[in-house]
Amino acid sequence: MSELHDECGVFGIYKNNENMNIADETYLALYALQHRGQIGAGIAVNKDGNMKYFKGHGMIPEAIPEKELSRLGSGRIALGHVKYSSGEAVDHENLAPLVMRYIKGQLAICMNGSITNFSELREELNQGAAIFQSNGDTEVIAYVIARERIKTASIEDAVKNAVKKLKGAYAIALMSPSKLIGVRDPMGIRPLCYGKIGDSYVIASESCVFDSLGGEFIRDVKPGEMIVVDDEGLHSYQVMESSKTALCIFEYVYFSRPDTVLDGVSVARARQRAGELLAKQHPIEADFVCGVPDCGIESAIGYSMESGIKYATGLIKNKYIGRAFNDRKKNNEYLMRIKLNALKHNVEGKRVIVIDDSILKGATSRHIVDLLRAAGAKEVHMRIASPMFINPCYLTSDTTPKEDLIASRMTCEEICRYIGADSLGFLSAESLPSIAKECKLDFCDACFTGNYPLDISDMSRTDKYSQKIE
């Protein structure tokens, strides 16, 4: 169970089916993206250029009550967003979609990712007397687009010009009074794809959304590509080119849902391959293999298949802990005790191999080992389906300081002693790309190697704008 929190999720739909209620469809889509953010959610609906929206804190049922969903009504275009933030709390102004009114009418926007030149852009806008209501990337991007729109003939031209000024990792979904637009960063670091539900076009962070809605996945948005949907259909523009691509490999390790197909590779299959490689690189005799729910399960199945050691359930996860509980938790240890429990009947007297997706700070791993030992496990061998996480990721929602990353200050043997396991093994950094060897893009693996695909000096500063919430 990774201590790195999920990415945000974006969704957009352009309705061409008369009997479709796009507020309802967007609401259901957010359930399919709930794993990418549990701290807040929002929906904006566009009917004839008039945009209604509602945003709230917590998971989907808490964030968007049924009565508010009904109040949104139906329209032609809609956006949805689920949010995670590295902050302890998020003000309402930082929830998305952001809906703003400017000289050309209304504009709604949401994003997943992080702008590395955030401070530079915000300072430039401040010098132009911009007034900000939030402290996130989304509002800065909206300002840049609005400024460009005044100088251009169309919203798509404004977006083309605006994104060329952005540096970083992002998947953006926005709607104007008459168009739905999606843009992916030029290296393809953040995921974005599109499909159809009947005759209606849909953009989303993950392909699992189309399956959940009974739709059809068409393809991933290419790095640097802009997708525009209007009453004439779908249009594609290659806005930016990059000499290299760098899809975040942690999407396969943890962020994405197992039933997602990302840039040509099944996430579930990639995780199974990680488990197969772990079995080859770190074999051990044991009675059974189990996975830490949820993201360790597929890798545990792969480890079992390769090693011939049976797979069984060793840990049970409480899936009903929402924001209300999190607000009342006394500390992380208290939360962990409620969140996970060992299945004593399976564990007692057994040699257990437990597979997790990653280790960041180490506290969760130590708690898992303690749980299994308390349930009577004879031996606990931990295997991690990714390399040692040694560097902060400045291109995702959650930037854990380097000094808090246990692998940046301890060896594998020291971590093993700290968490109390009988043995510990990580997937090698050299073999990690092979878990998604059919992927159409190259990877960003900076959290494991320190090889950042972008200049992150602005992100790693502690100036007045670097503590942004996105």
Question: What report would you give on this structure?
Answer:
The chain has 16 helices and 23 strands. It has 470 residues and is α+β, with helices and mostly antiparallel strands. Helix 4 packs across helix 5 (137-149) and helix 5 (137-149) packs across helix 6 (155-163). The strands form six sheets. The protein has a seven-stranded antiparallel beta sheet with strand order 3-2-4-1-10-9-11. The protein has two domains: 9-246, 4-Layer Sandwich (Glutamine Phosphoribosylpyrophosphate, subunit 1, domain 1); 266-440, Rossmann fold (3-Layer(aba) Sandwich).
Query: Largest sheet, order of strands side by side?
Result: 3-2-4-1-10-9-11
Provide the helix percentage. Answer: 25-40%
Q: CATH superfamily name of the largest domain?
A: Aminohydrolase, N-terminal nucleophile (Ntn) domain
CATH architecture of the largest domain: 4-Layer Sandwich
